[in-house]
From TrEMBL:
Topology with respect to the bilayer: Multi-pass membrane protein
Entries under Pfam families matching the protein: DUF3817
Presence of the UniProt keyword Transmembrane helix in the record: yes
GO cellular component: plasma membrane
Keyword list, A-Z: Cell membrane, Membrane, Transmembrane, Transmembrane helix
Subcellular location: Cell membrane
Source species, domain of life: Bacteria
Keyword Transmembrane helix (UniProt): yes
Protein name per the record: DUF3817 domain-containing protein
Length: 120
């Protein structure tokens, strides 16, 4: 039988999990946009005559990645993850499609560990 989790801690972890999940999905989407932009820019257009709005894609992904990293640290602290789990979770934001897979995996782990079926 597992140890009961205090309801206040459950709420804190659930809030951090929601922030993490949101940032993982947004970061994953922006990473895919960035990859598409790079393919268009370097393969299709040959690094010439690119739209000026392409220059905003990289920094936007970077901003969301920083928020994603903060969300990983926030959730990792509240869920008491080992530093290796923090690092691997953060690195998932730089590999296309991996942030979606890792988000689902971490979500399931946290929901199970903290009994968040009703809160998450």
């Amino acid at each position: 039988m597992s140890t009961p989790v205090h309801p206040a801690r459950q709420k804190r972890v659930a809030k951090s999990l929601k922030f993490y999940s949101t940032m993982a999905i947004i970061t994953g989407i922006w990473l895919l946009v960035l990859v598409a932009e790079m393919i268009i820019k370097y393969i299709i257009l040959g690094n010439g005559n690119q739209p000026t709005w392409f220059s905003y894609i990289g920094p936007t992904h970077g901003l969301f990645f920083m928020l994603y990293a903060i969300s990983c640290l926030d959730l990792g602290t509240k869920a008491r993850w080992e530093p290796a789990k923090w690092l691997t979770t953060m690195l998932a934001g730089v590999v296309p499609f991996l942030s979606f897979y890792v988000e689902k995996k971490r979500r399931n782990e946290v929901v199970t560990a903290f009994k968040l079926d009703d809160l998450a």
